[in-house]
Structures are given as C-alpha cells and as structure tokens.
Amino acid sequence: MVSALQISRAIREPGYRPPGPGSAPPPPFLTKPTTVARAAVRAYHRSGAGAATSYLAGSLGGWLDHPNKSMAGNARNTLDGLANYISADREDGRATRTLDTNTAVTLAAGDVKVRFDLVLNDGSGVAGRVVLWDGPDFSDKDAPVIAAIYAQALTALHPATTATTIGIWQARRGHVMEIPVAAALQRLPTANAVLARL
Q: Residues 25-67: pLDDT tens digits?
C-alpha cells in the first residue's frame, strides 16, 4: 500500500516512484535521520526542547562529523530541522491532542496509509500536522494537493469534530503552511491522479 508521504514526494518531485514489492531496503544513512527525527518530535512534545535535541544529537552520534560529507550534511540538516520545527511549533502554540496517529483512507485509485505526526486541538476543532524530513521542498500550489489525503483522513478520524487545517511542515527548509481542510479536500482528484501514476 502506498503511503501519503510517498504521494507527497511524488507531488514535490515529479518522476519519483516508491520502491516496489521485494525491493531491497534503503541504506540506513537514508532512513535513520528521518526515523530519529520523528522520535525527536515526539520527545519534544512529551519532554521539551532540551530532551528532544539531546536525543537527536545522541542518536545521530558520529554521523555529525562523518568523513562522508553527504552523511554528515544529512545529519546536520536533520538537527537544524528540529530547531526549525521547535521554533515554528512555539510560534504556532496549539496544544497536542495525539502523537503519531496512523490510519488509512481509500481513494478511487487505491488505499493509502496515512500518518500524522500530531493531531492538535484547534479551538473546538482539530488540526493535523505532517512533518517532512526529506530534501524536496513544496510549492504553495502543491501544498493543498499534499494536504488533500490527510484532510480526508482527519475528517474520518474525527467525524464528530470540525477538522480545521492540515499543516505541511518541511522541517529542513523551515517551510510551514496551514491548509484549510475544505480547500484541501477540493484537491482530492489531483491527489488521486498522482496515486494512480505510482
């Protein structure tokens, strides 16, 4: 099953294709920074900025000074991305409702795995947040398409509560957009077309 994150990558990087069944797993230097960054976000919301930063720096370990410049740069960008995230979250100020929520939605082109880093209380409603840790940034026109599947998932997860926005946060770039759920849902046909190509 394709994930909403993979669809977001295809929107931001035309030509991207997710690994097929039976593909070799990607090397750790590509996956570990994202895995520990997600854990650091959870640590930040549970225990504060100091705990999250210490955890991430410790988890990246010697990668920060690795002789391979690509690995060292990836580790440094991840640590900088956490600082960007913490700053933006403090400015945002909404309280966390749940962390690391997983679900699935069905589009015409197939089922999609959906993961929210956070669901937040937003007045009397709820908002979703997705934190991107990979390299490609997103454009203003792409953000509602990326948010579309997440908007459908959030409304399904909280049917009795108003779903307000989907936050698309590219941590490494410090790029944050909040997309109204109604606007995101209008872009579901475009998101479905991307899924159909994968």
A: 777 767 888 999 999 999 999 999 999 999 999 999 877 888 8
CATH architecture of 1-198: Alpha-Beta Complex (3.90)
Residue 163 sits at the vertex; the CA angle it makes with 159 and 169, to the nearest 5 degrees, is: 135
Q: In sequence order, what are the residues at sequence separation of 6 or more whose Cβ sits closer than 8 angstroms to the Cβ of residue 156?
A: 103, 105
CA R_g for the chain = 17
Residues pairing with 179 in the sheet: 166
Q: What own/partner pairs with CB < 8 Å and gap ≥ 24 does 60-64 have?
A: 60/32, 60/33, 60/36, 63/29, 63/32, 63/33
Under a CB-based contact definition with an 8 Å cutoff, are residues 188 and 149 in contact?
Answer: yes
How far is Cα 149 from Cα 105, in angstroms, rounded to an integer? 8
